[in-house]
């Protein structure tokens, strides 16, 4: 599998070997047998045709047309938005695709970033964030309070007016000339500022203390210390210690503290007060319907977000970073534990898609649905709601769905829902006008699990993949897109 992937990358990235690539692709054109969802589907047979593991690639033609224009004239930016769950939030798979696209078509900027570290979760490959305060947050997997959750799937929240967020680019390849701040309904909640006095931002330190939850028990007649220890699954010694008992005698009607097995985590935060007069707000702000933008940001190693003094509540949905070069911007949006239904309940998410102006939307969701054993039919309903909302807010942007990669239940049982989801996506791809990249099939399905384990491509939980496994997936998706792009170019001649 790795040898084939590396070979495809050489073909896709070498302009001198385009002809060889086309011949290779024609030889490997194939049709897979996938059971149709309904015998009434007039175009079911067409939906079954795949090329390099992408079904209904014609849905991607508008993107390929723009990519061809960029390839020939180097005169524009293209935005690719990749949306998903924990497989995407870590940015291993997507970073591989980003690097491949930008090395061939130009680096238009990093795209959307979010201060994940300020809410103590993973992310931020190329940007470091720090702040003097502890922030609250919301996540689209929450059952309630989703009104402020926008394009990143998370929101950063506070009502503390004495804060600074420092943004520091760690990789100079992603230095930016333009910065766009995304907030709920485009409210001007933040100022973008420079640090004119050399003020050092000391990140807020959060310390955790773990203690056992105590149960209060009123002693009944005839109860013994031994009996209570068995009832609450603890020991006589622990009950004695927390109640300062010298012996085994307990009195009727006495109230005892019983240490339970449940842990209580209490967090304390050390915050630094800052003098906001040490920051100078930038004035070259351009308000747009998709966020307020600062251009011509030359020579800054660091930039800061400070409070708009007229606001009393602050919510950040994301920051978009671009440079002044033409090329591809590859935006990554991932939320640990997310499902289609989690995105579907967040109206602001779909409203803010316009802020990224996508030319192609890639969606990699489904793994979390498989572990909740959602039926393929119900999964398809959520997919349809998601696509309808994108199109109602942003029109007919090309959409590519990826099937969930193979995984195991309880680390040993094959997960049959992955294949079911892949089949239903494929069978509906023509009718609903989207492309499908069959990641499940290209990885070998459940039958290949032992091979994935042997190659250290899948993590110990048998759900997530290793860094190498995600890089492999990213390379496979890029290769498949390039194969179909070259085929598109050949058909235009």
Query: Major sheet, described briefly?
Result: 9 strands, mixed
Which strand-content bin applies to the residues? Answer: 25-35%
User: What percentage of residues falls in helices of 4 or more residues?
Assistant: 25-40%
Number of strands: 26
Low-confidence stretches are: 1-35, 37-45
Strand order of the largest sheet: 1-2-3-26-23-22-4-21-5
The dominant shape is globular
Mean pLDDT rating: 88
Total of DSSP H or I helical runs spanning 4+ residues: 16
Rg over C-alpha atoms, rounded to the nearest angstrom: 27 Å
Termini gap: 32 Å
Broad structural category: alpha+beta
Structure notes:
A hairpin with a 3-residue loop joins strand 24 and strand 25. The strands form 6 sheets. The protein has a 9-stranded mixed sheet, sandwiched between helices. A 5-stranded antiparallel sheet has the order 6-20-11-17-16, with no helix packed on it. A 5-stranded antiparallel sheet has the order 7-10-18-12-15, with no helix packed on it. The two termini are 32 Å apart. The protein is an alpha+beta fold and 493 residues long. The chain is built from 16 helices and 26 strands. The longest helix is centred in the last third of the chain and has 26 residues.
């Amino acid at each position: 599998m790795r040898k084939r992937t590396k070979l495809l990358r050489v073909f896709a990235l070498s302009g001198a070997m385009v002809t060889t690539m086309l011949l290779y692709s024609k030889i490997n054109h194939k049709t897979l047998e996938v059971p149709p969802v309904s015998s009434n589907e007039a175009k079911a047979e067409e939906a079954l045709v795949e090329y390099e593991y992408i079904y209904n690639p014609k849905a991607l033609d508008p993107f390929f047309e723009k990519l061809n224009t960029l390839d020939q004239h180097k005169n524009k930016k293209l935005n690719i938005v990749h949306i998903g769950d924990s497989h995407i939030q870590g940015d291993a798979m997507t970073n591989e695709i980003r690097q491949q696209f930008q090395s061939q078509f130009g680096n238009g900027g990093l795209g959307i970033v979010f201060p994940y570290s300020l809410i103590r979760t993973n992310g931020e490959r190329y940007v470091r964030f720090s702040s003097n305060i502890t922030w609250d947050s919301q996540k689209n997997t929450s059952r309630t309070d989703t009104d402020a959750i926008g394009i990143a799937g998370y929101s950063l929240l506070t009502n503390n007016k004495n804060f600074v967020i420092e943004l520091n680019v760690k990789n100079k390849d992603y230095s930016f000339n333009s910065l766009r701040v995304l907030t709920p309904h485009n409210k001007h909640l933040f100022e973008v500022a420079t640090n004119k006095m050399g003020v050092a931002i000391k990140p807020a330190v959060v310390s955790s203390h773990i203690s056992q939850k105590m149960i209060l028990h009123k002693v009944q007649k005839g109860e013994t210390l031994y009996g209570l220890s068995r009832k609450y699954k603890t020991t006589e010694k622990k009950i004695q210690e927390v109640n300062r008992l010298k012996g085994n005698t307990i009195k009727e009607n006495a109230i005892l503290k019983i240490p339970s097995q449940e842990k209580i985590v209490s967090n304390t935060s050390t915050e630094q007060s800052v003098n906001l007069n040490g920051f100078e707000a930038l004035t070259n702000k351009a308000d747009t319907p998709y966020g307020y933008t600062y251009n011509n940001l030359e020579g800054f190693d660091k930039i800061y977000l400070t409070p708009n003094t007229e606001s009393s509540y602050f919510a950040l949905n994301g920051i978009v970073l671009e440079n002044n070069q033409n090329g591809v911007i590859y935006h990554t949006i991932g939320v640990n534990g997310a499902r289609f239904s989690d995105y579907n309940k967040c109206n602001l998410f779909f409203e803010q898609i316009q802020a990224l102006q996508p030319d192609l939307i890639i969606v990699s969701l489904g793994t979390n649905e498989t572990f909740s054993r959602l039926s393929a039919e119900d999964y398809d309903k959520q997919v349809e709601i998601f696509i309808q909302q994108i199109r109602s807010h942003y029109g007919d942007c090309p959409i590519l769905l990826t099937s969930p990669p193979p995984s195991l239940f309880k680390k040993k049982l094959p997960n049959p829902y992955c294949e079911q989801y892949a089949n239903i996506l494929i069978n509906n791809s023509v009718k609903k006008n989207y492309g499908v990249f069959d990641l499940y099939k290209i990885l070998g399905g459940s039958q290949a699990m032992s091979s994935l384990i042997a190659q250290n491509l899948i993590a110990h939980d048998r759900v997530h993949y290793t860094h190498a496994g995600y890089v492999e997936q990213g390379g496979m998706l890029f290769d498949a897109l390039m194969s179909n792009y070259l085929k598109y170019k050949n058909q235009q001649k």
